[in-house]
Design brief:
Strand content: 15-25%
Structural class: alpha/beta
Oligomer: single chain
Helix content: 40-55%
CATH topology of the largest domain: Aspartate Aminotransferase, domain 2
Shape: globular
CATH class of the largest domain: Alpha Beta
Number of helices: 18
CATH architecture of the largest domain: 3-Layer(aba) Sandwich
CATH superfamily of the largest domain: Type I PLP-dependent aspartate aminotransferase-like (Major domain)
Distance between the termini: 33 Å
Strand order of the largest sheet: 4-10-9-8-7-5-6
Length: 454
């Protein structure tokens, strides 16, 4: 470690409280400080190169070398660096970004409410929907249903919508959020057929509606694929049944597209990949390729018409809603995705290649399951594929694979005993091969540590 890195580590420990971190434990560990990025690679202070197998944090879908986005941000800062959207005001670039989003989203969406993050966007969903039902004269429809293992942000409201028990233990959550099971066949499907399991877990929504009362339930919120929860890809039977239940029971459907949106599943949005029609869509992350903070909610005409027709102030918003520099980054990102046909080309070649190469790891002795779609995937670490016995207690097996992967030049994430990867959509086949090679090395080292022959 060079002297500059040592000093940065000291400053980091002294002043920077990191998200989702055990602060006591962190003081005793070495900080990974990154100083440079290009294409799909990140570089630490010592010049070590890593494949960014997480696209930043699910957000740099186009990697790190996009001068058109840089230029758009710089030009905007030189013309109108900021103005707010309150008091019947708008910035030209914010209006243009709203239209750009309408042009790429499903036909029911003609309105957008801008936020700074996915967490704020899901808070906004609650406010929008409560206002909607109040205007319809249905004030009792206040309850939201979500899933265990879901992640919808980390504010109190968004964290309440999510299904992470560890988060819920640290604050008093909203009283009007209920949770049902997640479509995780590997951990919860027992010996059931995947299709049968998909129907079964989807019908938990109907059972919860019966329990709480349709007249009290506002909406069901879910990610097309649960990302931070471990890349949980639902069985093919799941979303058609969820969609049917919501339509029959007068329950709004929110598709949280913060991770799946902007091409990661092979379509612009995950709802399109799975064939369902949400009433609202949450977006953030890849909307600006991670270059600027921007989030928001796509609001269907069904809801927007009621909000606009019945009048009255919607008392909600943010200083930086529709921030000009963030919107400029968003327009540039969408232009690249459209003009360079990134989604279509990746879906035709790199995505199926990525998934096929990942499946070659299924024969590895400590891999219990490989699952994924598009440019996101998870590898479950297990000692026994049939019994699903874990390699070590307290998710130590997954943590060790992650550590070895990073040590060998691949940034991945461990969620429990699942190794999660979501590399940029601009990878080449050769770079996918290198990712698989480095991941295999990490699996081999971990297997040998636990006395398993590879």
């Amino acid at each position: 470690m060079n002297s500059n890195t040592t000093q940065l580590n000291k400053l980091d420990k002294a002043h920077f409280l990191h998200p989702f971190t055990d602060f006591k434990e962190y003081k005793e560990t070495e900080t990974a400080i990154y100083t440079k990025a290009e294409h799909i690679y990140i570089y630490n202070e010592n010049g070590k190169q890593l494949i960014d197998g997480m696209s930043g944090l699910w957000c740099c879908n186009l990697g790190y070398s996009q001068p058109k986005i840089n230029e758009a941000i710089a030009n905007q800062l030189n013309s109108l660096p900021f103005y707010n959207a309150f008091f019947q005001c708008s910035a030209d670039v914010s209006v243009q970004m709203a239209k750009a989003l309408v042009d790429i989203t499903p036909a029911q969406f003609n309105h957008v409410f801008f936020t700074n993050s996915g967490s704020e966007a899901n808070d906004t969903n609650i406010r929008l929907i409560h206002r909607y039902y109040d205007l319809l004269g249905k004030p009792n429809k206040k309850i939201f249903i979500s899933r265990h293992g879901a992640y919808h942000g980390s504010t109190i409201a968004a964290g309440s919508l999510g299904g992470f028990d560890g988060m819920h233990k640290q604050y008093t959550g909203l009283s009007y959020v209920e949770h049902i099971g997640q479509p995780n066949w590997f951990t919860e499907g027992a010996d059931m057929d995947k299709g049968e399991f998909g129907i079964k877990v989807a019908q938990e929504l109907a059972a919860k509606i019966d329990e709480v009362g349709e007249e009290n339930i506002a909406a069901f919120i879910a990610e097309p694929i649960q990302g931070a929860g471990g890349v949980i890809v639902p069985p093919e039977t799941y979303w058609p049944e969820i969609s049917r239940i919501c339509k029959e029971r007068d329950i709004l459907l929110i598709s949280d597209e913060v991770i799946c949106g902007f091409g990661r599943t092979g379509d612009w949005f995950g709802a399109e990949t799975f064939g369902y029609e949400p009433d609202l869509m949450t977006f953030a992350k890849a909307v600006t390729n991670g270059y600027q903070p921007l989030g928001g909610v796509m609001v269907s005409d069904k809801i927007a018409d009621v909000l606009a027709t019945d009048g009255g102030e919607f008392t909600h918003g943010f200083t930086y809603s529709g921030h000009p520099a963030a919107c400029a980054a968003g327009i540039a990102t969408i232009d690249i995705l459209k003009n360079d046909k990134i989604i279509e080309n990746t879906a035709a070649d790199i995505m199926p290649y990525f998934q096929a190469q990942l499946r070659t790891l299924e024969s590895h002795p400590i891999v219990g399951e490989v699952r994924g779609m598009g440019m996101l995937a998870a590898i479950e670490i297990a000692k026994n594929k049939s019994s699903k016995e874990r390699l070590a207690p307290d998710c130590a097996g997954g943590a060790m694979v992650k550590t070895h992967a990073i040590n060998h030049g691949l940034m991945v994430r461990s969620v429990g005993d699942a190794i999660v990867t979501a590399p940029p959509m601009v990878c080449t086949r050769e770079e996918i091969d290198l990712l698989i090679t480095r991941l295999t090395i990490a699996l081999d080292y971990t297997a040998k540590h636990y006395g398993i022959k590879v």
